[in-house]
Automatic annotation (TrEMBL):
Pfam families: Clp_N. Residues 2-189 form the Clp R domain. Keywords: Repeat. It comes from Streptomyces naganishii JCM 4654. This is Peptidase. Signal peptide: none annotated. The keyword Acetylation does not apply.
Length: 190
């Protein structure tokens, strides 16, 4: 499938691996792909984000929201609401766990001190599904290659923290699709 990826899309996938490595994450997650999309400049995906008001300066708010979700064990707002319906206050749980075990205790595991992973980080099931979804998005638009815009559209179309955080900042599948493929005020150059 990677032979269908454009240079920008390949750079995003490689960037996601780099973000996972720097974070000490065991696996490459969907949030790492979103962070790598933010690193791109001059691509269709970066144009669409900027057209929707998510400029590089405003992306820091998204990064903070992703970090907050990571500290909550990667639970989405929908997960937190479901727990709340059961009488469980996720913020209180996170606070108590962090009081006992330190900040970020619920975040993805890091390697034990002195232990390093060899080779590349594997992709989580969600990240693999995201790559497959990006192919479906590209085919749905009759595009021959998978670009970073297809990765972004796939992220926005899937349930979970990245789509939730993007939507909180005005970036949804519908708004991205409108900017990238017409019907909006701006259209990304192909």
């Amino acid at each position: 499938m990677f032979e269908r990826f454009t240079k920008d899309a390949r750079a995003v996938v490689e960037g996601a691996v780099g973000h996972a490595e720097r974070a000490g994450a065991e696996r490459v997650e969907e949030s790492h792909v979103l962070l790598a999309l933010f690193d791109r400049e001059g691509s269709r995906g970066s144009f669409a984000l900027a057209a929707l008001g998510l400029t590089p300066a405003r992306r820091q708010a998204v990064v903070r929201d992703l970090e907050r979700a990571r500290r909550q064990g990667g639970l989405s707002r929908a997960d937190a609401e479901a727990l709340s319906g059961l009488g469980i206050d996720l913020s209180a749980v996170v606070s108590r766990v962090e009081e006992t075990h330190g900040e970020g205790a619920l975040a993805a595991r890091r390697p034990a001190p002195g232990r390093h992973w060899s080779g590349r980080r594997p992709f989580s099931r969600g990240a693999k599904d995201l790559l497959t979804q990006s192919l479906r998005v590209a085919l749905g638009h009759r595009d021959r290659h998978i670009g970073d815009e297809h990765l972004l559209l796939a992220l926005a179309s899937r349930p979970g923290v990245p789509a939730e955080v993007l939507a909180d900042h005005g970036v949804t599948y519908e708004t991205l699709n409108r900017v990238l493929y017409g019907g909006g005020e701006a259209r990304a150059a192909g």
